[in-house]
Amino acid sequence: MSEVVTTRREGGVFEVTLDRPKANAIDLHTSRQMGEVFKAFRDDPDLRVAIIRTAGDKFFSAGWDLKAAAGGDAVDGDYGVGGFGGLQELRGLNKPVIAAVNGMAVGGGFELALSADLIYASEHSTFALPEIKAGTLADAATIKLPKRIPYHIAMELLFLGRWMDAAEAHRWGLVNEVLPADQLMDRVRAVARELAAGPPLVFASIKEVAREAESMKFQEAMNWITKRQFESVDILYGSEDNMEGFKAFAEKREPVWKGK
To answer: Is 131 among the catalytic positions?
Structure first.
């Protein structure tokens, strides 16, 4: 494994660390590495939840590596499986992903955090989309951000490129919790362990339905669920885990999830 992208396994928890001084910026090569790492996470049945974090406490990530771009990395180049940072376009990723933001999440770094299902941030973390000042488009953020926070706030961030601190991000519901930096990873790992002990087939259904229903009308999505047209829902409704949940409730005991 490259020293730039390292991984750590603890039971069903998969921790991915990007360590690319000075600002954890992502070039094409790094993006492709991250894509392979998250693809391996997606395809490993023993892994239940991933954490994406970065080294240091100044930058979570500065996003796209402009020095690499100046050296020949094409903005529309091959980012690898999963697109930029390995997460934004990774198909079939039906497992929870947590972002642990410690420092500045800028441009593509902000978009990397937005690719996670849960975001926890240290108190000194800040967020910005400065692409407007460089005369370019924050593409993924333009798609995702207006769906995550109030439209007018999202447009302000996109149009002005202003900075938003962690407290404001929490106020708008963009991050789940804001913590002292020395408590961030303990909290994130505790949440990850709780998720890893949960029902993986239900998590898969939640992620697939939430993702695919974005382009559907409500009744259409409900019909797809009841008729088991979502692959993950069909697997869930025919699984041992689904029956185990019912039995555990009736028997007043904790369920034992097998993921099948």
So the answer is: yes
